[in-house]
Design a protein that fits this description.
Layout lengths: L7 E6 L5 E5 L1 H7 L2 H12 L13 E4 L14 E6 L6 E6 L3 H7 L2 E7 L6 E6 L2 E6 L10 H10 L5 E4 L2 H4 L7 E3 L4 E2 L4 H7 L2 E7 L9 H16 L2 H25 L10 H8 E5 L9 E6 L2 E5 L2 H5 L9 H14 L3 H16 L18 H13 L3 H5 L3 H8 L9 E2 L2 E2 L8 H9 L11 H10 L5 H19 L13 H12 L1 H5 L15 H12 L5 H21 L31 H15 L10 H6 L3 H9 L4
Parallel strand pairs: 1-6, 7-12
Antiparallel strand pairs: 1-2, 3-4, 3-6, 4-5, 7-8, 9-10, 9-12, 10-11, 13-14, 14-15, 16-17
């Protein structure tokens, strides 16, 4: 594989110090790249006998064939391990510049196993790979560590990923942070890295990425950059960023739920006063991240953390939002999970389930600036109640008891957004997701029409808003009614389609925000065309979609092998009651458990999974080119 792919998989054993390399080609021929190959590497090496924070777990980083090229958004690296949050699949994606640099050094994937007997970091410079002492770095935060590494290595162009003190302490929702602010946030991958005594990975490459036809590849990439810049959505994202876009979305959805309290938020004023610039990852024409410089600290924010740290905490103070956001970035914690855990604690306090005796004397009231900041600090430090909450929602609820489990908002252990209930397709996508987060199965039309439904009870206006999406819904799901977030019709087909469509970037190494997911024009035809030009090998759209489906089946098989069934594809019980019935425009929105079960049946049938167990059928796995996975599950009596 002389073109596009780096050519090698790098394996590092921190227990023995062994470093070895093997060709990528046998894996790429089957699963293309990135998340697909990562998933097979995990399935092959980490069985049910290995616990997430044990040395036998693998921490796997994977790039795709387009990572590090001039293709728009070619920055993504998939990160995968057995998750301490879900107990099975732990997936996150990281942008920035680190993944391209790994490709420039000649590696498509990095697999880390074992545990060092002291803090270490990996130093990778082309063919030279070293395990070095990180004892001088241990305890440094995610802002300090990249600079310290560049100084020690003597190269300011080194790209790094690292954990902060939260990852060192194995806070269950700690993160892996790149040096430019992009974060592998969900499913506790920072805790896995910390469990291995691995502080950071520093990479410098000089080999670049080669294309079979450089001129044609360059021309094709430039054409796509121009195409993106010609769209209205590009101008909206480039001008306003994702934060403001999500503010508009959340206002509408919370209005659908009868909770328009956050009209007091003044995001526009906050941005005008404090926004420093927009920041973009490698190869990004959009620059969707907001960079702020204010007295509470400098940093970047993309989208969800803004909503989670304001709406979910009933916190209208954007300076508090920003202070917690910077704390999370500095110390390496997932801001969305942090917000969810604090919001749950606040609800327990407001309901009298816990008292100040449980919270170290702190009144944990909704919207309390003192409570939000102090709870965040305690969790990061694992101090008293923070130590309990640092082990995640499910563990904390089991230890607190007293009915606290009733108020959890999670799927498979992963905190989930409070805005999901009005959106039936997103609800299904969340329930069946491998990680408890349904972002890849999201139905964009549901968010789009929610902007209208949340602002009016006039059915004529709602139907007019739906018209924009109905033709797409008919083509994708077989029914124009699938575009309506209040109806079940076509939702299973829509979710499957969106999982496949939005999973393409995770296979080839391209940011999903460049695609139809965010209203931008990059699609599978562009990806297949440029991979074919760049690699010199014919590549079809069918081949890329096949790799996405293979990955979905492979991750589902891993879940099944870990003991999961359709019984785990659920939503919190309170989601079925959360919408206020007096809201006329939303009276048909609330999803019942029985309706979710019927939608799951439809989804499993479309995927080729057993309706009774949720496991991929043997013929499905064999048809997908995964005969060894089918044989493994059959040997275990799981299919």
């Amino acid at each position: 594989m002389g073109y596009l792919w780096g050519g090698e998989i790098l394996r590092v054993n921190l227990t023995t110090g062994e470093i070895r390399k093997e060709p990528t080609a046998p894996y790429a021929e089957r699963l293309v790249g990135s998340r697909g190959i990562n998933s097979l590497l995990l399935y092959e090496t980490v069985g049910p006998e290995v616990r997430p924070l044990e040395p036998g777990n693998r921490l796997i980083f994977g790039t795709g064939p387009l990572t590090g090229t001039l293709f728009p958004g070619s920055c993504r690296t998939d990160v995968l391990a057995k998750s301490p949050v879900t107990g099975a699949i732990g997936n996150a994606s990281i942008g920035g510049y680190w993944g391209p640099e790994l490709k420039f050094a000649g590696y498509d994937h990095l697999v880390v196993e074992g545990k060092a007997d002291r803090p270490v970091y990996l130093a990778i410079r082309d063919e030279t790979v070293e395990i070095r002492s990180a004892e001088s770095l241990w305890g440094k935060d995610c802002f300090e560590t990249p600079g310290a590494l560049r100084k020690e290595i003597g190269d300011r162009r080194v790209q790094t990923v690292c954990i902060g003190p939260a990852g060192e302490r194995q806070v269950l929702y700690s993160t892996i942070n790149s040096s430019m602010g992009s974060v592998a946030a969900r499913t506790g991958l920072g805790a896995v890295m910390g469990s291995k005594n691995l502080k950071a990975i520093a990479v410098r490459g000089s080999r670049g990425v080669q294309a079979a036809d450089p001129s044609a590849f360059l021309a094709g990439c430039e054409r796509l950059h121009q195409l993106i810049r010609s769209t209205p959505m590009y101008h909206e994202l480039h001008t306003f960023g994702l934060t403001k876009w999500q503010d508009k979305e959340y206002r509408a959805i919370y209005s659908m739920m009868g909770e328009p309290w956050a009209e007091s938020l003044r995001l526009q004023e906050f941005m005008e006063t404090n926004l420093y610039k927009r920041v973009g990852c490698f190869g990004c024409p959009v620059s969707c991240m907001d960079s702020y410089q204010i007295s509470q600290g400098s940093g970047v924010v993309k989208c969800s953390p803004y909503a989670d740290l304001t709406w979910d905490l009933r916190n209208p103070d954007l300076l508090v939002f920003w202070e917690v956001m910077v704390m999370c970035q500095r110390y390496g914690v997932d801001a969305r999970s942090m917000a969810n855990v604090i919001a749950w604690t606040m609800e327990l306090y407001e309901r009298g389930i816990i008292t100040e005796d449980d919270t170290d004397g702190l009144p944990v009231k909704y919207g309390s600036k003192e409570a939000i900041l102090e709870m965040a600090r305690k969790i990061i430090q694992r101090e008293r109640i923070g130590d309990l909450l640092a082990d995640g929602l499910v563990e904390a609820a089991q230890r607190i008891g007293r009915g606290s489990e009733e108020y959890l908002l999670h799927s498979k252990g992963s905190p989930i957004d409070t805005h999901i209930p009005p959106l039936r397709g997103v609800s299904l996508a969340t329930a069946v997701s491998a990680t408890g987060e349904g972002i890849k199965g999201c139905i964009v039309s549901e968010f789009g029409t929610a902007l209208t439904i949340g602002q009016t009870q006039d059915e004529a206006k709602i139907q007019k808003a739906l018209e924009r999406w109905q033709e797409n819904a008919r083509q994708v799901a077989g029914s124009p009614q699938a575009a309506d977030p209040r109806l079940n019709e076509g939702k299973a087909a829509y979710v499957r389609h969106n999982e496949d469509q939005n999973g393409l970037g995770d296979i080839v190494g391209v940011c999903t925000w460049m695609t139809a997911f965010m209203g931008l024009p990059i699609n599978v035809e562009h990806m297949a065309e440029l991979i074919a030009i760049g690699s010199g090998t014919p590549t079809s759209t069918e081949r890329l979609f096949q790799a996405v489906a293979q990955t979905r089946h492979l991750q589902r098989a891993y879940e099944i092998r870990e003991g999961m069934t359709r019984a785990q594809d659920i939503l919190p019980q309170r989601f079925y009651q959360q919408i206020k019935p007096e809201m006329a425009a939303t009276s048909r929105v609330a999803l019942s458990p029985e309706e979710l079960e019927r939608l799951k049946d439809e989804y499993y049938q479309l995927r080729g999974w057993d309706v009774q167990t949720g496991a991929p059928r043997r013929e499905t796995l064999e048809r997908a080119g995964l005969p060894e996975v089918a044989a493994d599950l059959a040997r275990r009596g799981l299919i």
